[in-house]
Amino acid sequence: MIISRRRNIYTICFIAVIFTCAASYRLPGMAAMAASDTSKLTGQSQAGDDDVFFETLFKQYPGVFDSVLAHRRDWNVQIIYTEVNRNNNNIPTTKSYYFNRAGARYFYPASSIKLPVALLALQRLQELKASGIDKFSTMITEPVGPGLSGVYNEPNSTDGIPNIASYIKKILLVSDNDAYNRLYEFLGQEYINRQLKAKQYESGLVMHRLEISLTDSQNRVTNPVDFYRNGRLMLHQPTQLNKVNYPQRSDSMGKGYYANGKLVNKAMDFSTKNRLSLHDLHSMLMGLILPGQLPASKQFSISEEDRAFVLKYMSAFPRESMYPSYDTANYPDASSKFILYGGEKGTKPANLRIFSKSGQAYGQLVDAAYVVDLDKNIEFMVSAAIYCNADGILNDDVYEYESIGLPFMKNLGKALYDRELKRKRNQVPDLSGFRFSYDK
Questions:
Q1: Which of 4, 301, 341, 373 has the fewest CB atoms found within 10 Å of its own CB?
Q2: Could you tell me which residue, 379 or 16, shows the higher pLDDT?
Q3: Phi and psi of 253, rounded to 5°?
Q4: Beta carbons of 100 and 73 less than 8 angstroms apart
Q5: How many separate helices (H) and strands (E) can be counted in the chain?
Q6: Is the pTM of this model over 0.85?
Q7: DSSP 8-state class, residue 332
């Protein structure tokens, strides 16, 4: 069924109020958060051990990580590596190692912010279960004014209709921006940020859509959404307006930026942009991959079926999806897999699966990945961020992704993979739960 009709009356929202009041809750600064995390990963190294593990590891590869060690502060390099061990009942325990935690500064999360939004969309569907909708229900998004368009069809789905499942698949397979925007509109800015705070992801703030230029006021407004089953309206969600006032932030990047074709010689203000620390991103991934390693209060409330759905498409290659379908020329296997592969092209081995969500924007690279080799029975988790902007100028499209960022991600993944190959385990892990039959 393809739905193409439009409503006769659109909800038009014009916001003229500038929100200046303090928020009902405060978000800690990045420096303070790096020094004393309130939600620690299970088995993490003590503060005094930070950097030592990675300095020792990197020195085993002369010439490969020298620049990273020398520029860890300038490049805002951040790494969290989690070693996984299992007992004879296959129950995991973990130990985490950090690099440059004390010197960590704000970084722009780019597309990595899509992971919590996708998980919250599935959680919200669980909350709305009584209405009779699920991730496969037809989801019609209505326009709500200039720049806030609607969606009535999804040509690259099994039946031509848009739905939550299709959007999540596109996010996980190729990091689709419009798909993220539609989930953002379904959830609403207030719900997203309230839930992140409730789950103690204190760094998390989701403030805007991606790829389209909108004002802060426009991003506070989210489109009306209708859900259908067999042509019958099951749920109407009206336009939402987030009235929560957030505290003033001082997040910035670079030493200059281009705006309207002119160079502005000062740091670019990111205080109204999305924010998520590497620690919180890594915790979200751990809660998804190894749920028992985090308290229930920090986990997203999704069904086991939905968890398997997310894991399947987090680890799938774009060519393994029929709906939506992607060509290998534009979407090679490693197109969104920075850890271990960097910018490599070509076909990757099916036994090596990377469950990940990456991001790239404004010279920032970030990736959170759980790596499994199903043939060699090894597993590990690593999240990393690096700022690749030697001239310090943003919006000039001159970034060192290819020369610095992607090689770093690739080499980091390979060094940790090599370590895992050599590391002795008391028990061989059973990784059958991470084997999936991918679409073709």
A1: 4
A2: 379
A3: -145, 150
A4: yes
A5: 11, 15
A6: yes
A7: -
